[in-house]
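Side project, low priority. Logging it here so it doesn't get lost.
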Amino acid sequence: MITIIDHGYANIANIKNAFDHLGIDCNVTRVSEDIISAEKIVLPGVGAFSAAMERLEQTGIADALKFRAMQGIPVLGICLGMQLLFTSSEENGNFPGLDIIPGKVEKIKTQYKIPHIGWNDLKIVGCNPLFTGISSGEFVYFVHSFHCIPGKMSLRSAVAEYGCKITAAVSYRNIFGTQFHPEKSQNTGLRILKNFGEIKL
């Protein structure tokens, strides 16, 4: 069973529909009590970092999520959800994140148009069970202006080129993140979600 966190700053329907399509049991929650008993957690997100963090803290989900992550259950952050897992973000100031993954979130530095919207090919650069059966060169869908800079570049498991190297995915112990939207990335994205559903730690 996968627990999807609905903190009010995410398109939950597409993610749930993707898991339903794959035949993977999932539930959606807005309460911290469900996080404490979760077997696997997905933290999606779109919008502003600070507003989403405020909601997670107000509901107690932030503390519950950090507790379960420390216990070693698999956690997947998607787009803003991945950014929230990091130590801090420079979006509209300097705001603390969940600090589950060491590193920061900063604006993409590129000569290309921001936000970065559309399909981009992946370059897999590290081990990540999310990419089982997936090769470099496959395309996924991005919508973002900020990206994650891990404290150690070895935490990057995939990058995308957009006038600079964008952190496309990270893997840190039992914690995983994708800057792109697997639920919008057709067969490649479905395979990534299926792989997460099959992770055993």
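Brief comment: The chain has one domain: 2-198.
Revisit when time allows.
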